[in-house]
Amino acid sequence: MNVEQLIGRCSRLKQELLIAYGASPPNDGRIERLSDELAAAEREMAAVLDSYQDANGQLKNAA
Q: CA geometry: angle at 35 spanning 32 and 50, to 5°?
């Protein structure tokens, strides 16, 4: 996935988490699954963004 797709996925998962937490009673299984998916998406986004930087934290191929 590219960064834009990952941002969209994280946003969707956060919205779903808000809904799951607001349910009465909260659906613990759904909350756990969504939390795991969000953590994985955030790790993937960090890896993608990290690949855009050199060892000094500068963007690769930046003028």
A: 150
